[in-house]
Amino acid sequence: MATPVLDKAEAESSASPYITVTFRIRRFNPEVSEDAVWEDFAIEIDPKERVLDGLHKIKWDVDGTLTFRRSCAHGICGSDAMRINGKNRLACKTLIKDLNPEKPITVEPIKGLTVLKDLIVDMEPFFQAYRDVMPFLVTKGNEPTRERLQSAEDRERFDDTTKCILCAACTSSCPVFWNDGQYFGPAAIVNAHRFIFDSRDEAGEQRLEILNDKDGVWRCRTTFNCTDACPRGIEVTKAIQEVKRALITRRF
Amino acid sequence: MSADTSSAIGPVESGSLYDVDNPAPLIEAPRKRTGKTPRATRGNFEMAAWLFMRLSGVVLVVLVIGHLLIQLVLDGGVSKIGFAFVAGRWASPFWQVWDLLMLWLAMLHGANGLRTVINDYAERPNTRLWLKGLLYTATVFTILLGTLVIFTFDPNIR
Predict the structure, then answer these.
(1) Candidate from A34, A115, A180 with C-beta closest to B25
(2) What's phi and psi for A10, nearest 5 deg?
(3) What is the set of domains in chain B, with CATH numbers?
(4) What is the spatial distance between Cα A63 and Cα A41, in angstroms, rounded to a whole number?
(5) Do B33 and A32 touch (CB under 8 A)?
(6) What is the per-residue pLDDT across A68-123, written as a single tens digit (0 to 9) for each?
């Protein structure tokens, strides 16, 4: 009874886990051509590995000119957000087996930001919007000699938006941001939300005024692209609506 | 010393395609944020517009569904509509106010919706300007004409 089961397990472990996966990558090199082109790379890879491992394999073994950002490679630093199979994700959190490896896996830079080379975009407009909402604690009066204490409930109020890693997956999936890039974008609003609803912070009113701008929260069309794209599972659209509600209830 | 150092450096593997006389093409940013975000200056028009959309939407649901029921479903449906039917309804100030409110709210609601669509989809400032100009002209014309008709309606015309 036990023998066939063992046989089967042995056969499985001896078979190679590697399969051939085609990566279809959007290449752009301004020193070679003004046009971006698709390039296919067929590599042998274990489907239980991540898209980032595939990109590494290509860069290290096949074509060293392939350029992309990554730092920690474990979903914390937010460097490797890219458009994989038409959806913004972190390459280091996307397993190949979850992507239908039968078909070519398309990898593109995130949209709405200037592409510098291959998968690298200019993040400056994104961080400019982030800086504009003053993402730091602002307080008045004397500094306490110990920590600024906060109740668990007060902490819970903005817990969701503290998870942001600034990968730009949300902002670069927002169709309003794609238009002219003047919209603050979900990421900036999420980080404003994190301080607006922090009981220790005293510049909430100022941040609300900044987001009341014509390129602020009122341009949100609640398409939920940002919530779908967020690799940390932040309810981005909900956070934006909470800022809208705060703006309306404070004024009336 | 310096001569030794420079001679020790090997030649560059492959020369760049570009040099001073033949510079690499400049990639222009398709979109740029201004260095500093301007402070909200002209009140909160966007907030007012956003609120108006929600509030007028709620009122319009009642007005439009009531209008459709009366015009198309109740009491013989669409076949009863004629000059006499409209004249009879507009004899009462209640229906005048109903229709006036519906005209204004629906036109402003629709115009504001189209304004945001133009803002979101028109890429060049000139296209934006012309589309919005056309939109505002059509809106003002329709609202004024409709208001004029409701207020100056004469059942004894002809």
Answers:
(1) A34
(2) -65, -45
(3) 45-152 (1.20.1300.10)
(4) 9
(5) no
(6) 999 999 999 999 999 999 999 999 999 999 999 999 999 999 999 999 999 999 99
